[in-house]
Amino acid sequence: MSAPKPDDLLDPHALVHAEVLGMHARQVVEGYMAGEHRSPFFGFATEFAQHREYAQGDDPRHLDWKVLGRTDRYYVKQYEQETNFVAQILLDGSESMRYGSGPLTKLHYAKQLAACLSYLILLQRDAVAVGLFDASLRRYLPRSNNRSNIHVIMSQLASFEPKSQTRIGPVLHEMAQQTPRKGIVVLISDLFDDEEEMLGGIQHLRFVGHEVVVFHIMDPAELEFPFTGNVEFVGLEGVPPLLTRASEIRKSYQREVEAFRTRLREGCERNQSHYVLVNTGDPLRDTLSGYLAFRKKTGRARRGPG
Amino acid sequence: MSFLNPALLAFSAAVAVPILIHLLNRRRFRTVTWAAMRFIQASVEKNRRRMEIEDLILLALRCLIVGLFALALARPALRSATSFLQSRRVTAALVLDHSASLAAGDGAGTRFDLVRQAAEQAVDALPQGSSVSVFLAGDRVTAAVAEPSFDLNLVRKTVREATLTDLSTDHPVGIAAAVEALEGQAALRKEIVLVTDRQALGWRRLPEVAAMLQERARDVRLRVVFVAEPLEDNLAVSALSRPPGFVPAKEPVRFDAEIANRGASLVRQVRATLHINEGRPVDEVILDELRPGEVRRLTFFGRMPGEGFHAVSVRLPADRLPADDTRTLVVEAVKEVRVLVVDGDPASNGAFFLRNALQPVPAEVADSYYLQPQLGQVGSLGVARLSDFDAVILSDVPPLPATAVDNLTRYVREGGALLLFPGPQATAAFYNAELGTRAGLLPATLGALRGSPTGEGESPELVLQGSGYQHPVFALWNEPGAGSLAAVRFRAAWTLVPRPAVTNAVAVPGGDAPVSEVMVRFSDGVPAAVEGAVGRGRVMLFSSTAGTAWNDFPVRPAFIPLLHRAIASIADVQGGRFNVQAGGQVALRQPAELAGRDVTIVPPGSTERRWVRTLRAVPGASLLEWDETAKAGVYRATIAGRSTPLALFAAQPDPAESDLTELSSEQRAELERVGQVMDWTPGMDLRAAFDRERVGVELWLPLALAVLLLGMTEVWLAQRFSRPK
Q: Rounded to an integer, what distance in angstroms lies between the CA atom of residue B341 and that of residue B375?
């Protein structure tokens, strides 16, 4: 499968729908209020807060020229600023995400979803960071609220190619340790990994104060198992091939998948996290708008009438 | 268990096909690259055992279906409970019908050819180790292989070489011979295979067959194989006879023939011809039409060219059953018949009427007439050489001396012919005591005198029966044109009381019984004439005079033919013996000096085949005995040193054999209750039919149903098993 072009990842239809609805933070995060969001976290404001190393996509205007002059190193200045939440988007780039019953793979769909979410978040002037992982975090784009940064995100997403198996749990633990600031962690994955570790990671993120949203990416074939006759299934992540009469185990398979989803959903609910099943057979805009509508509704309910 | 199509058992190797398909199917799959392997692994792990069992069940079912189908093709049959443990070999008696009806053909072959083919198949159909005896049967049986032989090649050869005859058909005879042959066998399986056409004639005694098998052969299975198709048209010469009487040489002789249409359609312009000694036709009759079932009596006339034996034939144009298109009669033309007339009362006119009736020709040709009467005296009877005469007539003789009685007795016992006309001179005491009791010459005793010998008084006149004559001498007057014997008036007659062994059955010439027979009766039922056999001779006893003393018979026109027929009937002792029904026995008396000589007998239609038989010595003569007369036609017996044949005799087919009417459905149903009945046509597999019946129940149908049921089960299970689980 050839890597998608960056612009392909932004589904115009999805974006139109999603933009109208907006992105509502489910929880009030620390920081001062700016727009609809109040955040206690650092942003680019006039009141200097700290330095951090320049990253691709940062506005060069925020470079601290003095430091550059003295040390010949690129640092940007961070200010306490009215800012939005920081969304950490973690995209599963393992081998299993390469599966697609049609031309559209789960990874492609997941990239589109990640791109759309990133764009929306940037539109709201919120910051977004994107991490691509498989067995470990392979790429990480530090948070940024610069809209022009969307191209960098797209480019990174598009150029990513899966190579290895999934290990979600350790990645989540790593994220929990490296991002102590409360924010939203969006996990986009097929979740084909150890459930205990995965839920442990989510619990860890929740423990440090993150809101966790899990987008469970599933191909329609993985949900329905429409195969008939003798089929040899060759695993994408090194699992030995398995020959069976597919139609005869369909219901059993569907029960297994349903039980897996139920366990995940219940695990997420125990950790006050959102579990969202994404069927790659559904249009992305429907998936995205459906979730945001749900989120807006539940957010209002939680904040109450005031 | 045995198989009727064992070769098809090879299809059972197809049991491997489902296994191969199963194995090939396992190698035929499509590959899908898959991410969610953990769920498939879990599902397969949970369902593996069930799927394996289902696979095995379906595989076993499919193998079973193929196997049972192959088994059904091989047509298995279940043997009986006894034969399951015992040998299959059969002790069989093969009965081939070789009667005249089997000569019917279609131009390419005869029914008998089919009989032989079917019989050979029947031999081929016997299980290994079987033994067979062979009988050729009509209304008599020839044991071709008398004892059951294990040499089936010999049996086949015997069947192939079996010949057709002109015998009549009577299946109980053949079956009885077969039953007898099997009775002595200690075999467990005994079978009689009768191969025949469907002619109903042979089964007229079917109930006897059933009873015989029931009583004597409960362990014998009868199989009847019918061959040949029905024959639509058949004309037959169903009878040929000559009226009783001598056959004079060079005189016109009458022959009576019957032509029968045994077919189902009207036949026109039927030409029947008379042939003497197989020469050109000497007489012919053309029938305009002959309706189905109609029998037409025809009269032919022919002259015998000279003294001696002659073959007289009536022929019809050949049809599909040639056996009955010709019928042949052998007659012996005589030059002279000498009759001794002894009148007991010279004053009466008995001798006068007798002599003139015996020689009813002008005086100038009397010497050349074949009947030569000679008058004798009562007193010379004791010393006369009676053997010089063909017949002796005693007209109203008084009591005779013992020497005369002894001379008469000797003459009759050695084959002489005696006619007695008791009248007023006769005494019942002498006749009954001397001629009857002591000499044994009389077939009846004399009772009271009936009527009034003088014509005085009120006694009514006696008259003879007006119709219904059974005896050949009187049968002529059954014809309306011959006049009536009831016109004859009897003033007086002796009451004849026949011997106790009286019967109306026709006496067999030379046979032992019956002893006496009423020839004709008065209108009140009292016998008017009685005939009897004494030794090798015959005696006719009339109840009244030969002259006009007690009756007016001598002046009636009927007297001359009556006397001629009586003389011929009684004197021509051997006449009937020249002609027998096919299969019958011939016994011809020959001069005593020929005893021990060999006689060569040439059968009909043969120039090469000959038999030699030695003449057997009997008191006062020698006897030529012959019973190989199964073929209809003329047999010639010659003896070395003689230019003319010693004798000719003819065998005639049974006229009933011409009736090819087939067994009715009722008869067939009855026959099927007795044994297995099947219709065989060339190309039909007799072995299968026999085996099926021989081995019991055929199982292909239950197997086919089982295959169908298993097939449906397989489809249902396959669908059920392949449902998502």
A: 5
How far B16 CA sits from the closest chain A CA (Å)? 21
Return the CATH number of the domain spanning residue range B235-334: 2.60.40.10
Which chain B positions have a beta carbon within 8 Å of A227's beta carbon? 32
Structure confidence by residue, pLDDT tens digits, B492-549? 999 999 876 433 333 333 334 346 889 999 999 999 999 988 887 889 999 999 999 8
The alpha carbon of A152 is separated from its chain's Cα centroid by a whole number of angstroms, namely 16
| Nearest CB neighbour to A249, from listed B29, B38, B47 | B47
Provide the 3-class DSSP secondary structure of residue A49.
strand
Q: pLDDT truncated to tens, each residue of chain A (306 aa)? A: 445 555 555 566 655 544 433 333 233 222 323 344 433 333 344 456 677 888 877 778 778 888 888 888 888 876 655 455 788 999 998 888 989 988 888 998 898 888 888 877 877 777 889 999 988 888 888 888 777 777 778 888 888 888 878 889 999 998 888 876 778 899 999 998 888 999 999 999 998 888 899 999 999 999 999 998 888 998 887 778 888 888 888 989 999 999 999 999 999 999 989 899 999 998 887 888 788 778 777 654 444 333
Same domain, A257 and A176: yes
Closest by CA position to B412, among listed B430, B433, B391: B391
Q: CA B120 → CA B61, B114, B179, distances in Å? A: 44, 10, 20
The answer to whether residue B52 neighbours chain A at the CB level (below 8 Å) is: no
Smallest CA–CA distance from B54 into chain A, residue: A248
CB B574 within 8 A of CB B646: no
The C-alpha of B707 sits at a distance from chain A's nearest C-alpha, in angstroms, of 26
Q: Are B104 and B660 in contact (CB under 8 A)?
A: yes
The verdict on A71 and A199 lying in the same domain is no
CATH for B578-652 is 2.60.40
Q: Where in chain B is the domain with CATH 3.40.50.410?
A: 86-231+662-695
**Backbone conformation region of residue A160, classed left if phi is above 0, alpha if psi is from -120 to 50, else beta:** beta
| Contact flag B29-A230 (C-beta cutoff 8 Å) | yes
Residue contact A253–B29, C-beta within 8 A: no
Residues A100 and A207 in one domain: yes
Among the listed residues B514, B493, B490, B495, the one whose alpha carbon sits nearest the alpha carbon of residue B504:
B514
Residues in Cβ contact with A296 at an 8 Å cutoff, skipping those fewer than 6 apart: A21, A22, A24
**Pick from B26, B29, B41: which is nearest to A231 by CB?**
B29
ipTM associated with this complex: 0.76
Contact with chain B for residue A262, Cβ under 8 A: no
Nearest Cβ partner for B43 among A98, A230, A253: A253
From the list A95, A99, A249, the residue facing B43 with the nearest CB is A249
Q: Is B720 on the interface with A (CB under 8 A)?
A: no
